[in-house]
From TrEMBL:
PROSITE patterns: YJEF_C_2, YJEF_C_3, YJEF_N. Its EC number is 4.2.1.136, 5.1.99.6. Residues 228-499 form the YjeF C-terminal domain. This is Bifunctional NAD(P)H-hydrate repair enzyme. GO terms for molecular function: ADP-dependent NAD(P)H-hydrate dehydratase activity; ATP binding; metal ion binding; NAD(P)HX epimerase activity. The lineage of its organism: Bacteria, Pseudomonadati, Bacteroidota, Sphingobacteriia, Sphingobacteriales. The gene is nnrE. Belongs to the NnrE/AIBP family. Belongs to the NnrD/CARKD family. Transmembrane segments: none annotated. (6S)-NADPHX binds at residues 59-63, 131-137, 142, 160, 263, 324, 375, 440. Catalyzes the dehydration of the S-form of NAD(P)HX at the expense of ADP, which is converted to AMP. Together with NAD(P)HX epimerase, which catalyzes the epimerization of the S- and R-forms, the enzyme allows the repair of both epimers of NAD(P)HX, a damaged form of NAD(P)H that is a result of enzymatic or heat-dependent hydration. Bifunctional enzyme that catalyzes the epimerization of the S- and R-forms of NAD(P)HX and the dehydration of the S-form of NAD(P)HX at the expense of ADP, which is converted to AMP. This allows the repair of both epimers of NAD(P)HX, a damaged form of NAD(P)H that is a result of enzymatic or heat-dependent hydration. It catalyses: (6R)-NADPHX = (6S)-NADPHX; (6R)-NADHX = (6S)-NADHX; (6S)-NADPHX + ADP = AMP + phosphate + NADPH + H(+); (6S)-NADHX + ADP = AMP + phosphate + NADH + H(+). The keyword Lyase applies. It comes from the Bacteria.
């Protein structure tokens, strides 16, 4: 896991590294700037481009001055610097780097407070105005400058964070933020980069390792954690020679209606392909032929719409409910029965969540350790409207704890909230996966992992990673625009094999 820190903790990690390594703060700035430049050169190899570095007078500006000097040394001759002198204050490391810059032939211009802004025609703008030191929304000269740069439509690369961007906490509504194409950020992605609001001010980010003290970062025990491939490889359990289908558990998937049988098929297929020993689908009679012809491996329990099916709950290691299930009275009765009679963790998705939104008192009966897998709309239907994603994170931590469940909120970065208050961010997955049925597949994957005796926390972490990784393997090599859910389900064994190799 990669711990994700809030900005005050990043400052603590900076200070600890400076004291412990030991390294002077100006040398740490040099290291950070070099790490930035290494990535910049790979991204923008054309040395003929004109580059201007806009610098504030804090440490972000100090980085900017060092970056300009290092770019010149790396044979980018057309680099220049503009300093926004909007404050009387300047950090010591900014001043030290300004001295060093004066020994180069880099063109330097100062923009004074209140002065009219000059035209900007450089090919590339590097934004080193403000970084993680931002403590209020941009106003006055900074807001005016950022607004002007936003009008240019130029290529903008931010140092650490786009100027005006709050790295954690709910962003103030309507705040002015510089719109950047690429952010080269230090040490770790900032938490708000992983939330959808960031899309309005950055297309993508790259992380530059600046060697802050890792054991200190670990010791902060951040609730925000980014899942890495290494974690998944450590969690996955290899199969053993004498294992049999009983070893890998029996999953029951309660899903589907006449017009939404596809959801039941996709979920069941994903469950079987992820390796559950046995999969049974509880489906309407009208879906039986479809199931028997497309998924010969999956067994059925039929819901006939009049009588509740006889389900021997104790036969199953996991029950997943919701994909395409509909929200009629029979479906609700069956869900309530499952909550009462199945005493192991369940996976609850889609229409099952919509029913719970309509009858919130039922949610209190959800078996402890269960996993709910809402997308944003389902989440808000369940827990009320939210003004920001940061607010959703807070609700997740509170509700997961209150109900003793795992909440997996789906998005570009899917986030799992645990009863103990941790939030795990998953980075695999891509926009080719933005197509119907993809969530049904994820539900099947997670149910399958629970059947195979992974804990609920492990099932969420592995499930989100494996689902996204499979989508990446299908989409990336061919730059596919779309990956279909059924195609993804079938590819899971291949991705799983690679992760376990
Ligand atoms: N040793 C370190 O601390 C390191 C810091 N680094 C850089 O340092 C940056 C943080 O530097 P600073 O803490 O100096 O902060 P910034 O450079 O982000 O900001 C400078 C100052 O601007 C003022 N300010 C904040 N919000 C403002 C607003 N809305 N309008 C006008 N002024 C505002 C604050 O007084 C703040 O301290 C990081 O983003 C990174 O670029 C890197 O060099 C790595 C090492
Ligand atoms: N841009 C994206 N990047 C990464 N993953 C995505 C993206 N778009 C969709 N997904 C993934 O696809 C799934 C969609 O789930 P959901 O909205 O419930 O679909 P459905 O209801 O059609 O089954 C989620 O797991 C989500 O994380
Ligand atoms: K910046």
């Amino acid at each position: 896991m990669i711990p994700l820190l809030i900005s005050s903790q990043i400052r603590e990690a900076d200070a600890f590294t400076i004291e412990q390594e030991p390294v002077t703060s100006v040398d740490l700035m040099e290291r950070a700037s070099k790490a930035f430049v290494d990535i910049f050169i790979k991204e923008f190899p054309d040395q003929d481009k004109s580059i201007v570095v806009y610098c504030g007078t804090g440490n972000n500006g100090g980085d900017g001055l060092a970056i300009a000097r290092l770019l010149k040394r790396a044979h980018y001759p057309k680099v220049s610097v503009k300093i926004a002198r909007f404050s009387d204050k300047a950090s010591p490391d900014f001043k030290a780097n300004l001295e060093k810059l004066k020994h180069t032939r880099i063109k330097l211009l100062e923009i004074n407070a209140g002065a009219p802004l000059q035209e900007e025609s450089s090919d590339i703008i590097i934004d080193a105005l403000l970084g993680t030191g931002l403590n209020k929304p941009l106003q006055g000269d900074y807001a005016r400058l950022v607004d002007a740069l936003n009008q240019l439509n130029s290529t903008i690369v931010a140092v650490d964070v786009p100027t005006g961007f709050f790295t954690d906490g709910a962003p103030p509504a309507g705040a002015t933020v510089l719109k950047t194409g690429l952010v080269i950020t230090f040490q770790q992605p900032k938490i708000n980069f992983l939330l959808p609001e960031s899309a309005s001010c950055m297309d993508r980010f790259k992380v530059a390792d600046i060697g802050l003290n890792k054991s200190f970062i670990e010791s902060l025990d951040s609730p925000y954690q980014l899942i890495s491939k290494k974690d998944i490889r450590q969690l996955l359990k290899p199969r053993k020679s004498f294992d049999h289908k009983g070893t890998y558990g029996h999953a029951l998937i309660i899903a589907g209606q006449q017009l939404t049988m596809g959801a039941a098929l996709l979920c069941s297929s994903a469950c079987a392909h992820t390796g559950a020993g046995l999969t049974t689908a509880c489906i309407p009679e009208s879906g039986l032929t479809a199931l028997n012809t497309t998924l010969a491996e999956v067994m059925a329990i039929v819901r006939d719409g009049k009588n509740q099916p006889e389900i021997k709950w104790e036969k199953f290691n996991v029950v997943a409910a919701g994909p395409g299930l509909g929200t009629d009275a029979d479906s609700l009765a069956l869900l309530e029965k499952a909550f009462k009679e199945f005493n192991k963790p369940m996976v609850v998705d889609a229409d099952a969540l919509n029913m719970l939104a309509q009858k919130p008192e039922v949610l209190k009966n959800i078996p402890k350790g269960s996993i709910i897998t809402p997308h944003m709309k389902e989440f808000d239907r369940l827990f009320g409207e939210h003004q920001s994603w940061w607010q959703r994170l807070e609700t997740m931590r509170q509700k997961a704890n209150e109900l003793g469940i795992y909440i997996l909120l789906k998005n570009r970065y899917t986030i799992t909230g645990t009863p103990s208050g941790k939030l795990y961010f998953n980075a695999t997955g891509n926009p080719a996966m933005a197509s119907g049925g993809m969530g049904d597949v994820l539900t099947g994957v997670i149910a399958s992992l629970l059947a195979q005796k992974y804990t609920s926390g492990e099932a969420c972490i592995i499930g989100a990673y494996l689902h996204g990784k499979t989508g990446d393997e299908l989409a990336m090599p061919h730059l596919l625009n779309t990956v279909l859910a059924g195609q993804l389900a079938k590819h899971i064994p291949v991705t799983l094999a690679k992760l376990m190799s």
